[in-house]
Design a protein that fits this description.
Blueprint (H helix, E strand, L loop, with lengths): L1 H42 L6 H57 L1 E3 L3 H25 L7 H6 L3 H28 L1 H9 L4 H14 L14 H25 L1 H7 L2 H32 L9 H4 L1 E3 H7 L1 H25 L1
Antiparallel strand pairs: 1-2
Length: about 350
């Protein structure tokens, strides 16, 4: 009960404040109107009796007393309604903008087709298995690697899995070579992955950006110099690893055609390139794809092959501009065909 009485008192207090505010507004308006009437009567060339002037003022005051409270209340309600409509409209516009931005963010582009994705899965699965089974062979005295040997069931079993992974890597190279030659996207990507003078300019420009000497980053097309470096490092590494590994795998056949020192050189090349590839993958590739703050904890691009529009515009703006141009040209062609058909 005490709470209800307190609420009623608050409501009555608020209403009294509101009524007092309206009275002040009405009084001010009334004074303004009367002052203006008095000024007009004073300037009037026609002689008006004082009694008439008094009646006019009294009549005006009476009418104002009747009209102003209603007018003020109605005007206030109109202003409130208008403010609510404006707020609702603004909220709707904000929601539409947010929805549009969300739709833009959800829009994606197919960056890698199914062939490219399968090749990438074959590559990283085989390389990871090669690293896990190969490092213990490279560093047999390093005790922590003994865990990996035990994990794969012993030294002979580790060798089996190492060669199994090597077969997958060889199949990957065959698949990739055929894809590069026979598939349109493969031929396009291979040409775009070739080093160009622009890449040197992009390296210098990017260094200037990193050191705060430039406000803008270089604009990349489908592949940046970082991705080109990744590609050719893998390509060159596969040639060395598969070539030297094949000589070591089939030593008896190799010694029929090559001197002993050729196998010794192959062993060193295979071993050192394996360490170099491991460091490049862990330090270079993993950082750029997973540990970079802009990427962490990584994307599923390798799985579904699609890249969000905002990421596309930021990292590959030249490719995005080209795709938009192609889309616009296609739209113009379709529009022209529709016009001809009608």
């Amino acid at each position: 009960m005490a709470g209800t009485e307190e609420e009623n008192i608050k409501k009555e207090s608020a209403l009294a404040v509101e009524a007092g505010r309206n009275e002040l507004i009405a009084e001010q308006l009334k004074n303004d109107v009367i002052s203006e009437i008095q000024a007009k009567l004073k300037k009037s060339k026609t002689e008006i009796p004082a009694e008439t002037k008094e009646k006019i003022l009294q009549s005006t005051v009476n009418r104002l007393n009747q009209i102003l409270p209603r007018k003020i209340g109605r005007l206030k309600q109109e202003l409130v309604d208008e403010a609510i409509r404006a707020a609702a409209k603004s909220q709707k516009e904000i929601a539409e903008i947010a929805k549009k931005e969300e739709k833009t963010a959800e829009e994606t582009f197919l960056r890698f087709n199914i062939h490219f994705r399968i090749q990438h899965m074959m590559l990283f699965s085989s390389v990871i298995l090669l690293i896990l089974t190969g490092l213990p062979l490279k560093f047999p005295a390093f005790s922590p690697f003994a865990f990996l040997v035990d994990l794969f069931g012993g030294i002979e079993s580790s060798r089996f899995f190492h060669r199994f992974a090597a077969v997958i890597l060889i199949l990957f190279m065959v698949y990739h070579t055929l894809y590069t030659i026979l598939h349109r996207d493969g031929r396009r990507d291979f040409l775009l992955l070739l080093p160009m003078p622009k890449d040197i300019k992009d390296v210098i420009w990017n260094l200037k950006y990193f050191f705060g000497l430039s406000d803008d980053r270089p604009k990349f097309g489908r592949f940046s110099y970082v991705e080109k470096f990744d590609y050719w490092a893998v390509y060159w590494g596969c040639v060395i690893m598969i070539g030297s590994g094949a000589l070591l795998w089939f030593q008896d056949i190799s010694l029929m055609f090559l001197p002993k020192f050729a196998l010794d050189a192959s062993k060193e090349a295979h071993s050192d390139e394996a360490v170099l590839a491991t460091l490049a993958i862990v330090i270079w590739h993993f950082y750029n794809v997973h540990f970079n703050p802009d990427k962490f904890p990584g994307s599923l691009l390798w799985l579904h092959g699609r890249i969000p529009k905002d990421e596309m515009m930021e990292e590959h703006p030249l490719e995005y501009a080209e795709l938009m141009k192609q889309k616009e040209n296609q739209h113009q062609v379709e529009k022209s065909n529709d016009t001809e058909n009608t």
